[in-house]
Design brief:
The radius of gyration is 24 Å and the shape is elongated. Helix 6 packs across helix 8 (about 190-205). With about 300 residues, it is an alpha/beta fold. Helix content is about 50%, strand content about 15%. The structure holds adenosine-5'-triphosphate and magnesium ion. Magnesium ion (MG) binds near residues 19, 20, 43 and 47.
Length: about 300
């Protein structure tokens, strides 16, 4: 049987609206429906472990038969990344003696390297062909969008680094002639950079392909959340990423015995009306505010039933 392409699910929205709960519930639902599913947290303040009530971490962990999870650790990713980028030439003692090693250190310490490292890790998972579904739990809106704008930044940055590297390798060869005792042949690590560039190109295509990538905006029925979501939809559009689904979370259920709830619900229903008008061409999913906290598999399953009926 021909294997179907991996589908990707993103959930974006303001802090605390329910992104992590919805992402984990979605992943669980897909896994229950026999899709091999990976959920990845790219939020430096990870909460997948809390949501599933299982300790996860920087390595992929199997949670159920079809469900896998990983929390990208930005610090660890940055460290690994610097190691890869730091060319072997830095290890050559003769260069150190001449005080030239600092010249080669600039790449590993370039500004934004931590973010780029996390993005590189993200790209590795994005391009992995091992899963039917990959769900991303991202940081609140601003961060998630910054993450997606990184390919452009990274692209020009890598181009620059490659040029510097080429020049350096020329210099090194001259040094090698002058200093025949230089031990090893230096690796300049350009292959790795070229590889990242290729991955970025692929990521761009994947992220803007609506058959593969499903970008969901999570909001609560409040004015500020609506305005924020409108901005997010427009920004994503400018990156070529179409949003199809709006999820309205934490809708207060009817309760005639509670004046406070009734009033709050009345206001929320007004907001929901305006969301329906503003986002006329979007699929809208409504989720009630549950009495209990959304933690652990059984609560996530309950939430998941609102999210995908037939994945
Ligand atoms: N529909 C709901 N009913 C009840 N509680 C909910 C609902 N949705 C989310 N919560 C609760 O709200 C809190 C915040 O949810 P969650 O962590 O999923 O939000 P988030 O958008 O990921 O937050 P952050 O921006 O900090 O990452 C959690 O304690 C969660 O259990
Ligand atoms: Mg979260």
């Amino acid at each position: 049987m021909l294997k179907k392409d991996t589908r990707y699910y993103f959930f974006s929205g303001k802090g605390g609206v329910g992104k992590t709960s919805i992402a984990t519930a979605t992943a669980l639902q897909f896994a229950k429906n026999k899709n091999k599913t990976l959920i990845i947290s790219t939020d430096p303040a990870h909460s997948l472990s809390d949501s599933f009530e299982v300790k996860i971490g920087g390595e992929i962990k199997k949670l159920t038969k079809n469900l896998f999870a990983v929390e990208i650790d930005p610090e660890k990713a940055a460290e690994e990344y610097k190691k890869k980028l730091t060319p072997e030439i830095e290890k050559i003692e003769s260069l150190k003696d001449m005080g030239l090693d600092s010249v080669f250190d600039t790449v590993g310490n370039a500004p934004g390297i931590d973010e780029i490292a996390a993005f590189d890790k993200f790209l590795q998972y994005l391009n992995s062909k091992d899963y039917d579904v990959i769900v991303f739990d991202t940081a609140p809106t601003g961060h998630a969008l910054r993450f997606l704008s990184l390919p452009d930044v990274l692209d020009s940055w890598i181009g620059r680094v490659i040029k510097i590297r080429m020049k350096l390798s020329g210099v090194i060869n001259i040094f090698k002639k002058l200093l025949p005792f230089t031990e090893e042949s230096p690796s300049i690590g350009t292959e790795h950079l070229e590889e990242i560039k290729k991955r970025i190109e692929e990521a761009r295509k994947t992220l803007s392909n609506p058959d593969k990538t499903h970008y969901n905006i999570v909001m609560i029925p409040e004015e500020m959340s609506i305005a924020e979501s409108e901005r997010a939809v427009n920004t994503l559009k400018s990156y070529g990423i179409p949003v199809k689904t709006i999820i309205i979370n934490q809708i207060i259920p009817e309760n005639p015995r509670c004046d406070f709830c009734t009033e709050k619900r009345r206001l929320q229903l007004k907001r929901i009306e305006s969301i329906r008008k503003k986002f006329r061409n979007f699929k809208i999913i409504e989720i009630p505010l549950f009495k209990e906290e959304i933690k652990g598999f059984s609560a996530l399953e309950k939430l998941g039933r609102y999210l995908i009926s037939k994945p």
